[in-house]
Predict the 3D structure of the following.
Amino acid sequence: MLTRPDGKPVKDFRETWGNACKSAGVPDFLYRDLRRTAARNLRRAGIAEGVIMKIGGWRTRSVFERYAIVSQTDIADALKKLEAQ
């Protein structure tokens, strides 16, 4: 949960987030994109999926799979690792 310096919870940060993204030159960047990137990077680092789900707060496998997208590069890298063994 996001909190203010006085400890009170931030209930809605959409406007602030939008302004920050616009200032950074990425006006269409979504907050949940950070979760998706984290899930993908953790998976690529070899972290167990159960651990990734705990970190990201995903309770079901189906929701986790929507975030932890597997790319063609991920598949090619996996095959290269298999061939190396």
